[in-house]
Every structure is written in C-alpha cells, then in structure tokens.
Amino acid sequence: MAAFEALCRREGLALTVQRRGIMEVLARRTDHPTADQIYEEVAPRLPGVSRTTVYRVLDTLVRIGAVRRASHLGAAARFDPNTARHHHLVCLECDKVVDLDDVPVAVPPLPARRRAGFDVVDYAVDFRGTCPACRKRRASG
Amino acid sequence: MAAFEALCRREGLALTVQRRGIMEVLARRTDHPTADQIYEEVAPRLPGVSRTTVYRVLDTLVRIGAVRRASHLGAAARFDPNTARHHHLVCLECDKVVDLDDVPVAVPPLPARRRAGFDVVDYAVDFRGTCPACRKRRASG
DNA sequence: CTCCGTGCAAAAGGTTTGCACTGGT
DNA sequence: ACCAGTGCAAACCTTTTGCACGGAG
Fold it and tell me: Does pTM top 0.70 for this prediction?
C-alpha cells in the first residue's frame, strides 16, 4: 500500500480517497473481483462513489502497472473451432490472439496439494508479448 | 465439415443454412473471431440473418463440442492486484478463478520459429477443471 | 404436420463518454 | 488557484429473452 502511494507520486497522480479505497480492496482480495464487485465493496466506505469512478480508477491502476487485467483476450467472447488442446500467443498491446496448433508444450503436473480441491483435466498456456504489427508500429511511431 | 454434419445428426439437430454457414466461417478462420466478426462475415452469404441467431448458433456449437470459447474467465473484466507472474485454476463449469501464488510452473521456452514473429516476454498457465463446489453440486444433484 | 430454429424488438448487463463541479496539489 | 479527478446521466456495445412465424425432419 505504501508502494502504491509512492507509485502514484512517481507518476504524478493525485492520491484521492477513491484511488486509495479501490486499491485497498484489490490488495486485500485474493480472488479476481469484477469492477462491479469492487464497487459493491467500496461503496459503503466511500459514500457517493460512482461505478464510473471505479472503472476509471481501474483503468488508471492497469496503466501504471499496479494491477493486471486477469484476461488479455479482450472484452467480447471469442470462439475457436479448434477443440483440441492448444496454446496461444497473445499480444499485450492489441489483444490479438494466434493459435499454436500442433505445438506441444510440456507443463509439469500440478502437485495435488496446490490444486485447492480442483479436478484438473487440462491446461492451456498463453505466451504473452508483442505481435509483429505492434512492434513495427512502436518502432516507427 | 462433414464431421460437423454428422455431429448434428447424432445430436438430433436440424442442419440449417445458418448453422452450416457459421460453422464454415469458424472452420476457415485461424484467429479467434468474436460473435460480431462472425456475423459480419456471414451476413452477406445469409441475407437477413440476425445477430441473435449468431449468438444462439454459437451457444449450440459450444454445447455440442464443435467449438470452444477461447476464454473461460467469464464475461465481465476481472482485476488482479498480483502483477507478478502467476498461474490460475479455472473451473470450466462456474468460471471461478483461483490464483496459484508462489507456485512456479516450468514451461519450456517456445522455439523461435514457432513464435510467429512475437516478442514473447512472459507466459501464464491456466489449469482447467472442476472446482470443489461444482463437483459436490454435480454429485448431489 | 410438428416443432425446432429463426427473426425482430426490446431488455439486460457491462463499460464508456460529455459535461459541470469539486477537492488535491 | 489550477487542473486532475469525480459524479451524474446518457450513450454504447455485447449478449439474452419473449413472442410469433417459417422451414427442416
């Protein structure tokens, strides 16, 4: 939390009660709350806070690297005709997703004591980085 | 495509032009189109087709196992205060996501020739399966 | 001929935007 | 005091639902 305040100062961002409150909620929770869940938890402590602010603060937190979006696959649902196990290349800048067909990736089995009671039947690996188009765009821009 | 028609017959589903057209688009594309992108591509071939139908057909295709949803993280965006590399346990039934903090998973580096020009800087592994609550619910129900 | 599947329209989330005001710095 | 940050309302985008019609089996 102190690190967060330092980060804000370094970025020249105002330390508002809203930002502090939302960051506190995020820092405490170990699940991956939605914007609305964060709003519900923050609203009693910050009377009059709006959902708009929650969305805007979350954008800011993502931009300065204080939190992550849990999925990099974009907002809208995407569909994949390939039902076999396969992995993905994901561009962190434009959310483009490319299949890695026929590229087996050996992931060691998760030890039973780390599975939190889940029956694990499969896995998928997202390799994250920058796609050729975004790299080029950044180099020229 | 022939396999898809056989699958429909086996499931007792009518082979409508809409289902065939949407499945053809999905089978041809190697990216992960959104419902709207599929609609845009299918609309000229199926005059008068509605977005509603695209959504309903996609649901059907997922149900019979002809396609997959590319993300299992649910509709709403989720936020994660943990910006360090970590992996996830994902329930395929209720979309619950649990962090695997401090559980390193060794994934071999992707050979350069499989990277499709991406600069890969990180990776994340989603372990997929059934969470304890859903397993219990299924056992009792 | 019988329903399943579709189209339309409207509703239901989730998220973003325009504008005026307020609170940090 | 200035301007970034906020609140409100309305718009926007994606997805779902109710109802009536039409075509596949």
Answer: yes
